[in-house]
Design a protein that fits this description.
The complex is a heterodimer of chains A (371) and B (680). In chain A, a hairpin with a 4-residue loop joins strand 1 and strand 2. Chain A has 14 helices and 2 strands. In chain A, strands 1-2 form a two-stranded antiparallel sheet. In chain A, 71% of the residues lie in helices and 1% in strands. Chain B is of the alpha+beta class and 680 residues long. In chain B, strands 2, 3, 4, 5 and 10 form a 5-stranded mixed β-sheet that branches. The chains are: A mainly alpha (371), B alpha+beta (680). Chains A and B meet through helix 7, helix 10, helix 12 and helix 13 of A and helix 2 and helix 3 of B. Chain B: One of its GO terms (molecular function) is peptidoglycan L,D-transpeptidase activity. Chain B: Keywords: Carboxypeptidase, Cell inner membrane, Cell membrane, Cell shape, Cell wall biogenesis/degradation, Hydrolase, Membrane, Peptidoglycan synthesis, Protease, Transmembrane, Transmembrane helix. Chain B: It is found in: Cell membrane; Membrane. Chain B: This is Penicillin-binding protein 2.
Chain lengths: 371, 680
């Protein structure tokens, strides 16, 4: 190795960290603009949160594999209890809520459930004998593990998070090698159930979001307003954007939530298509790194864990970008590393920390090690 | 090796090992990566499409979001009198509009507005109706002329009043109020129909008013001016961030009238409690100096819409305050036509010294037509026929020359004529002759028709302006045409084809009406050096069997008329006064006297007026305000709503006016007796 750079620093996965830091700093600039050209209240806390959670991720990196394997079920169980607690408090206090006030921080158990479902399923499948992967015993426990948190989160109601948890879980199941025909029949079943769920399962406001997504111009001042204004922001940015701090859509409040869910539109208005492509490219780089980490691992648990984390982050990015570009309904999913908000930053940094942890396991353990 | 492997693959995977699982993982993770990359490409291309292909569309939409172009209503051109004094000007004021579509909690907001502005229940009912009637984002005016305190009180509450727009602007101001109501009309927000007709965005700009009646409507385009524009950057909630660009408005061009503002005001006030009109013209130039019609409405109070109380009060008034009586009041001219008939007689070669014996009546056919003076006038020559207004003299001689020369002379004097004036409409009345009657009623002209016509009864109808023109033409001997716009007249009118000695004779006789042994001695001017000449007239409205003309129900009383000019020896001013149902000419000529006095000596004129106004209870404007307050306290919200279109209000009045004007035709032709001039 290069002797100039100290070994602990050189050891870090810079191919991921560098793009990530660039992205977070870029996000801070966008938030600076979204606050009307001020560091407060978004940009500073964004950077501080990133620093704190990066530290947390570095600490996570040190966890040994066996410890992580050991705590996966307890962690899952604890989060499940917290979800029930949230539900209970909401019922007592009247009106739904998604977080627990712990005094110091507001904990949103459903957010933590996203990486936790990946962890517990990776643990489950790594412990399952290879021969049983085609039997019902590979499917039913996993399905129950997914269904419980999804059901609780849907009760909150939070469709976006529920879908996210389900997506993470299903990707792990898919990669675990469950028979293909189950996924195909599951997909067909989903196609059948979706319309039924739409009419009987969704709340009014959720239904409206879906219908306006299909035709946002039908109600330009109502529910379609978000999508329309977001598209106006992105489209008016053009190739190079209107320039830093020059976005009229965000500055004049036409864009709803310019610092959270629609931060990409805020960015695209000022930085144009080039800024947008750069952001997409950076996400691509981070994901590719994550998948390569997973591929390099020969440990089934680590493989599934790492790829599940990538899937969780991917779901955030894909759904958020599709939403702001008018390709998906408005479901309230923030954009990782750019949106202002502690919960999503924490979840995504847990994913990153987990990947760094697996990366470290890879460098420590010989490739030949099998579980 | 290859063969064995493919064989193995074809067999169902009975045994799943960790190696095959790893294999599956590799394949499937490749699929996942491919899927992710595909989504990435999809997003990138979607974004490129929005940002490049649809860039222009969205850039425009962002700009139209950001920039709000609002028109600044142009200040309306002034309407000024012949001396440049404003009859209609603009007054800077505070106004509040509401855009109903933008109100989130209309009832609550209207409640706040009511409390802050102190609106009563009738005003609220009007406001609700206007709000119901508006379409889309068109603003509705709540009130104008707010005090600064009210304006400030509303402004601080704005965050809780979405859709309420307080503004600084200009409102139309008519200093003399009701005195110019009929002449100038009023302004108001454009109606939906007016906007359909002229799709000008200015018409729906908050605070913009268009002329709704009278000269305001007639000169709309000239008075309008060019709107200014203000480009502002606004937030999504409509808050203005900054001004981008402002273009000042260009005020509309002024319209200068021949009207003498103070005289107009004086005449309107002098009419007092009566219902009638006063027209004064300059008989050298044809300039109309005064066209007062009372009772009237106050155009100042119409500019924020006609309220229901106001409308009900004006509608219920049998004196029809919404009708311009100068142009749309048609009256039998009564004896005021006698000087004109005398001109016809002279022209036909009647010797003015020829006398007719008046014994109080004349048999025509099988009916006796009485003179107003039942005792008779004895021997009457032409001059006495005029100043004593002897009917028998004219009954007798008119039959000799027939109706046609009289009708021709009437037309030569302006009766039945529609003048070239910038007014919306004028009723021009009737000059009957045999051909007209045959065509209209299919019956032959009878001797008694001529007899009726020579004393200005029967079918004959004229408006006060025509009577004033007649006075001007008789006085000057020229074919005077009335004008309303200053500078339009060249001042030199062609001679009216009257012989000079005929004019002199008629002038002298008309002077004797006032200054000699005539019927209107009380009309003599209280001035040393100016003598006014005139002719009285009393027009009967219904037959004697219904009313004696002087008492009883107001609407059955006789009209009082007076035409005049002054100074008599060198006529400068001519005019006409018509008092509806005044009970005889005695109601009309004192007004003519005071108005003429005011022309020559304003001080003296004002003294007379002040004395009278002390009796009547204030100026016309004050009395109107008092009447409104009284009516509002009695009727309040119970008053029926205003017709949907403002035009309907006036259209109705026009129709009523025409119907009312037709009554005397039938009622008075049957009358064997008329009371042309009541004795003093």
């Amino acid at each position: 190795m290069n002797s100039v750079i100290p070994a602990p620093i050189a050891r870090q996965p810079w191919s991921m960290l560098l793009p990530l830091i660039v992205l977070v700093c870029f996000g801070a600039m966008v938030l600076f603009s979204a606050a009307g050209g001020h560091w407060q209240p978004f940009a500073t806390s964004h950077l501080i949160r990133f620093a704190v959670f990066l530290l947390m991720a570095s600490v996570m990196t040190l966890f040994p594999r066996d410890l992580v394997r050991f705590v996966s079920y307890p962690v899952y169980a604890l989060l499940l209890v917290l979800l029930v607690a949230v539900e209970a408090i909401g019922a007592v206090g009247g009106g739904s809520q998604r977080w627990l006030d712990l005094g110091v921080i507001q904990l949103q158990p459903s957010e933590l459930m996203k990486p936790a479902i990946v962890l517990v399923l990776a643990r489950f499948y790594s412990g399952l004998p290879s021969g049983m992967i085609t039997s019902w015993r590979a499917l039913v426990p996993a399905a129950v593990l997914i269904a419980m948190p999804v059901g609780l989160v849907l009760l909150q109601p939070d469709l976006g998070t529920a879908l996210s948890i389900m997506f993470g879980g299903v990707v792990v199941m898919f990669l675990a090698g469950l028979p293909m025909r189950w996924f195909i029949s599951g997909g067909v079943a989903a196609l059948v159930i979706a319309p039924i769920a739409y009419f009987f399962g969704l709340h009014d406001y959720q239904q409206r979001r879906v219908t306006t997504f299909l035709n946002p111009e039908s109600d330009p001042l109502g529910a379609g307003y978000h999508i329309t204004q977001s598209k106006i922001a992105i489209g008016s940015g053009g190739l190079f954007g209107k320039g830093f701090n020059e976005g009229s859509q965000s500055h004049l409040n036409y864009l709803p939530e310019p610092h959270t869910d629609f931060v990409f539109a805020t960015m695209a208005e000022e930085w144009g298509l080039l800024g947008g492509l750069m952001v997409i490219l950076i996400y691509g780089l981070i994901m590719r790194w994550g998948l390569s980490v997973a591929r390099k691992s020969h440990d089934r648990f680590a493989k599934l864990l790492a790829s599940g984390m990538v899937a969780t982050m991917f779901f955030y990015v894909a759904i958020n970008l599709m939403m702001v570009m008018g390709l998906a309904p408005v479901v309230g999913i923030p954009l990782p590393f750019m949106s202002h908000g502690g919960s999503s930053m924490m979840t995504n940094m847990i994913c990153i920390g987990t990947l760094m942890m697996v990366n470290r396991w890879n460098s420590r353990a010989p490739r030949s090690r099998l579980s | 090796m290859l063969g064995r492997r493919s064989l193995f693959r074809k067999a169902p995977p009975v045994q799943v090992t960790s190696a095959t699982l790893e294999n599956t993982y590799d394949r499937r993770s490749f699929v996942i990566a491919g899927f992710g990359a595909g989504v990435g490409v999809l997003l990138a291309s979607r974004m490129s499409y929005i940002a490049i292909a649809e860039n222009e569309k969205y850039a425009t939409e962002a700009e139209s979001n950001r920039v709000n172009l609002s028109l600044i209503p142009p200040r309306r051109g002034w309407i000024v009198d012949r001396n440049g004094a404003p009859l209609a000007s603009n007054r800077a004021d505070f106004r509040v509009d509401v855009i109903p579509e933008r109100m989130t909690r209309p009832e609550e907001e209207l409640g706040v507005i009511r409390d802050v502005l102190g609106l009563d229940s009738a005003a609220m009912a009007d406001l609700r109706e206007r709000i119901d009637r508006t379409r889309g984002f068109r603003p509705v005016e709540i009130a104008n002329g707010l005090s600064y305190e009210q304006f400030a009180a509303l402004s601080v509450r704005l965050p809780n009043l979405p859709g309420v727009v307080p503004q600084r602007g200009y409102s139309r101001y008519y200093p003399t109020g009701p005195a110019v109501g009929h002449l100038l009309g009023y302004v108001g927000a454009a109606s939906a129909e007016e906007y359909e007709e002229e799709r000008n965005p200015l018409l729906i700009t908050p605070g913009y008013k268009i002329g709704k009646d009278g000269l305001e409507k007639q000169f709309e385009q000239r008075l309008r001016g060019v709107p200014g524009a203000r480009r502002v950057e606004v937030t999504a909630t409509g808050r203005i961030v900054r001004d981008l660009e402002t273009r000042e408005d260009v005020q509309g061009k002024p319209v200068m009238l021949t009207i003498d503002g103070p005289l107009q005001d004086y005449a309107a006030r002098r009419i007092g409690l009566e219902s009638g009109s006063v027209v004064v013209m300059d008989c050298r130039t044809g300039d109309v100096l005064c066209m007062a019609s009372m009772p009237s409405f106050d155009p100042n109070s119409f500019s924020d819409g006609i309220g229901r109380v106001e409308y009900a009060m004006l509608r219920d008034d049998e004196r029809v305050p919404l009708r311009n009586k100068v142009l749309k009041g048609l009256y039998p001219p009564g004896s005021t036509v006698k000087p004109m008939v005398s001109m016809a007689l002279l022209r036909e070669g009647v010797d003015p010294e020829e006398t007719v014996y008046c014994g109080g009546g004349l048999r025509v056919g099988n009916r006796v037509f009485h003179c107003w003076q039942r005792r008779g006038h004895g021997q009457v020559n032409m001059a006495k026929g005029i100043y004593q207004s002897c009917d028998v003299y004219f009954y007798h001689l008119a039959q000799r020359i027939g109706m046609d020369p009289i009708a021709a002379m009437a037309r030569r004097c302006g009766m039945g004529q529609e003048f070239d004036l910038p007014v919306l409409s004028q009723f021009y009345g009737t000059v009957p002759d045999p051909a007209w009657k045959l065509e209209k009623y299919g019956t032959k002209w009878q001797a008694y028709d001529t007899v009726n016509a020579t004393i200005g009864q029967g079918y004959m109808l004229a408006n006060p302006l025509q009577l004033a023109v007649m006075a001007a033409r008789l006085a000057s001997g020229h074919h005077v045409e009335p004008h309303l716009l200053l500078g339009e007249s060249e001042g030199e009118f062609p001679p009216a084809d009257f012989a000079d000695e005929h004019v002199a004779l008629v002038r002298k006789a008309m002077s004797d009406v006032v200054n000699g042994p005539g019927t209107a001695g009380r009309a003599r001017l209280p001035l040393e050096d100016v003598l006014m000449a005139g002719k009285t007239g009393t027009a009967q409205v219904v037959s004697l069997s219904r009313s004696d003309g002087r008492s009883g129900p107001w609407k059955y009383r006789d009209h009082g008329l007076f035409i005049f000019f002054a100074p008599y020896d060198n006529p400068r001013y001519a005019g006409a006064v018509v008092i509806e149902h005044g009970g005889g000419s005695g109601a009309a000529y004192p007004i003519a006297r005071d108005v003429t006095t005011f022309l020559f000596d304003p001080q003296k004129g004002m003294e007379a007026l002040h004395a009278l106004e002390a009796q009547w209870g204030g100026t016309a404007q004050e009395r109107l305000a008092a009447r409104y307050a009284d009516y509002a306290s009695r009727a309040g919200e119970a008053a029926p709503p205003v017709p949907r279109r403002e035009e309907d209000i006036f259209a109705r009045v026009d129709a009523e006016a025409r119907a009312a004007a037709m009554i005397p035709v039938t009622a008075a032709t049957d009358a064997a007796v008329n009371r042309s001039d009541a004795p003093e």
